[in-house]
Amino acid sequence: MNRFQTYLTQKTNASPLAVFRIGFGLMMCYSIIRFWLKGWIESIYLEPAFHFSYYGFEWIKPLGSFTYIIFIICGLSAFFVALGFKYRLAIITFFLSFTYIELMEKTTYLNHYYFISILSFLLIFLPANATFSIDNIFRKRSFEEIPNWCIDAIKLLLGIVYFYAGLAKINSDWLFKAMPLKIWLPSKYDLPIIGETLMQQDWFHYAMSWSGMLYDLFIPFLLLYKRTRWFAFALVVFFHIFTRVLFPIGMFPYVMIVGSLIFFEADFHKKIIAFIKKVIQKVIQIKSKTIEIIPEYKLKFKSVIIPVVMLFFMIQIIFPFRFLLYNGNLFWTEQGYRFSWRVMLMEKMGSTTFKIVDGETNNFFYVNNSDFLTPLQEKQMSFQPDFILEYAHYLGDHFTNQGHKNVQVFVESYVALNGHLSQLFIDKTVDLYQEEESFKPKTWILPFNDDKH
């Protein structure tokens, strides 16, 4: 305990956190603009008549045309974070608006969206505006040093993301069957030079699987060690650019590349800040104002912030292991799959048909899913059990409201996982309209037959 108290009193230069703040804010601002320009706000949030929601957050829905306002608020707050302008208010606003956007439609779930949400939550408690921020100009003071744990907290979060992603890759499909890379890589035949050669080779699929696992497990430690840091950063750049070329994973590679800079020492970040200052002075003629340099940043509400941050990391460390509470193949049932850094580990496709039955007369009809869902929604729904259950309830409510009596909803679903033959996914005899969403095991998911190839 004494060592921990001593650690909490250690100080470090504030420059790495300032550079991280600038990079994070600018990339998030660009992401929001990119999302808007691609027309995804309309196609994902405005066009669908029905939206899949997260359990416990069903009340979070798109707001019609006002949804654009949420994106404007999110983009502006990200830009203000980069500038360090009203930083605390800006990062809280960004966290709330971005997380609201993420929770509006479950079909858009990606690990890196979750990462942005929890990272922005962590940044609420860190003095990222201590130096090189507009807040410094208004307050006429800048801080040279901040608590060392503020930098280490971001390093730890990045380390958790990488290390847990590596642990998740230690499974038989990934290491001994090269799945799902054996399915994905051959489709990249149009890539110059390597498309028709390496991408078609069996040994290359295994090499990618094993190297991906080893990279995720060891890269945080290589970044921490000074002698291997530059080598590790080169690996980070190569790995994320290469995966960006292979797969449409948006801004995530660049977020991880810029984020890994925080592992470098303060002198490196001072040079980045000095370069940015020169660029700003060349572009905009600004009169320099006298700013008092204060040696040490005194963290306010320390007795509250440190326990909150500790609880935050306890959750991040424990939460990904919740899958151990469930039986069955994790990739098949997906109970405990999300929010656990299981990145691109499976290729799963399904065909799911819903039958609406009158419980008294046994008259029935089948649903055309395209009447209610967009192609993206139908694809995601077809193989994810919580999607199937939520959609079943939506259909049950819909046809009940139309005047149908004694509505029952049955589903016939066939799913293929990681190269295995398609097999029955949901118990056809269970009326899903009577099943409620919860954290309990979903007994109506049929067991996975690993022998079907």
Your description of this structure?
The protein has 453 residues and is an alpha+beta fold. It has a domain at 347-434. 52% of the residues lie in helices and 9% in strands. It contains 18 helices and seven strands. Strand 4 (348-358) and strand 5 form a beta hairpin. The chain starts with a helix and ends in a 29-residue tail after the last strand.
Number of helices: 18
Radius of gyration: 25 Å
Rounded mean pLDDT score: 93
Residues in helices, as a percent range: 40-55%
Which residues form runs of ≥5 with pLDDT under 50? Answer: none
What's the count of strands?
7
Largest sheet: 4 strands, antiparallel
The helix/strand series, from N terminus to C terminus, equals HEHHHHHHEHHHHHHHEHHEEHHEE
User: How are the strands of the biggest sheet laid out side by side?
Assistant: 5-4-6-7
Strand-residue proportion: 5-15%
